[in-house]
Amino acid sequence: MASVLVKQNKKAEAKTYLDKAAQNNNNQELDQYIQQLRQQIEAK
Q1: CB atoms < 10 A from the CB of 37, how many?
Q2: 40 CB contacts (<8 Å, ≥6 apart)?
Q3: Is CB count within 10 Å lower at the N or C end of the chain?
Q4: Tally of CB atoms within 10 A around 3
Q5: How far apart are CA 11 and CA 23, in angstroms?
Q6: Cβ(31)–Cβ(25) under 8 Å?
Q7: Cβ-proximal residues to 21 (8 Å cutoff; 6+ apart), any chain
Q8: What is the pLDDT along the chain (44 residues), one digit of tens a residue?
């Protein structure tokens, strides 16, 4: 969901979903993806 919101330029909503995903994450690959999305949000 966060990646869709990033593409729609809804940064605040995307950050909310990223925070939730990071809290419930036990997967290293998912953690890397979350970090990439965070960087995209901060770069825009």
Answers
A1: 19
A2: 6
A3: C
A4: 14
A5: 18
A6: yes
A7: 2, 30, 34
A8: 988 998 899 999 999 999 998 898 889 999 999 999 999 888 86
Query: Side chain identity at 2, as an amino acid letter?
Result: A
The two tokens of residue 6 are 């990033």
The reported pLDDT for the residue numbered 31 is: 92
* pTM recorded for the entire structure: 0.74
- Report the alpha-carbon distance of residue 23 to residue 44 in Å, rounded: 24
13 vs 10, 17, 28, 30, 43, CA distance in Å? 6, 7, 23, 19, 16
